[in-house]
Specification:
184 residues, alpha/beta, Rossmann fold, five-stranded parallel β-sheet, four-stranded antiparallel β-sheet, 24% helix, 39% strand
Length: 184
């Protein structure tokens, strides 16, 4: 039998969702947003983010795997832009990949992001928008920015479906909503 889990209700891009609360540290819970398989939310969010990103004139979109891949793909389709996915593990076919280390709140351990050699040419000299599903600690965001700039792109926007935690910390992020961090 499945445990009845407390949820946090949000409205985003005209849709209502109940996100389950999970403990990520002793006495600290977050509303876990998992857009994988939620095509409706992904498409609504992509359309709304596209409107808000339009005046920034990005030429390429950048995200980190895995949960934000559907969002960047949908956004790419709406905006007719290419996208790059930064990987979390290195594969030999990635060649001379660029890398940066991050610390995700959902995994609680350091991760390395890799930019595949083949994708570097999509970034050189271009204006990039960094896209994520949720920006919480900012570690993944900083890693994506570092790699994007190392590759020769200019970051013109940072966007997510949600920011989380201290709202003032994310004033420069285009977001459709904000999630609190729940403490006991």
């Amino acid at each position: 039998m499945t445990e009845q889990r407390e949820t946090h209700r949000v409205e985003v891009a005209g849709l209502v969702r109940e996100f389950p609360l999970f403990e990520v540290a002793p006495g600290v819970r977050i509303a876990v947003v998992n857009i994988l398989g939620d095509t409706e939310l992904t498409q609504y969010a992509a359309k709304e983010l596209a409107k808000q990103l339009a005046d920034r004139n990005p030429e390429v979109l950048v995200t980190a795997e895995a949960k934000s891949i559907p969002l960047v793909h949908a956004l790419s389709t709406v905006m007719d832009l290419p996208y790059v996915v930064l990987r979390k593990s290195y594969k030999p076919y990635m060649g001379a990949a660029l890398e940066a280390e991050t610390l995700s709140i959902t995994t609680g351990k350091p991760q390395t992001l890799y930019l595949d050699e083949k994708d570097r040419k999509l970034l050189v000299g271009r204006q990039a928008a960094i896209i994520d599903d949720v920006i919480s600690t900012g570690s993944t965001l900083m890693g994506m920015r570092l790699i994007t700039e190392k590759a020769g792109a200019t970051v013109v926007a940072q966007a997510a479906i949600f920011t989380e935690g201290d709202r003032a910390k994310w004033a420069d992020v285009i977001a459709l909503g904000h999630l609190p961090v729940f403490t006991d």
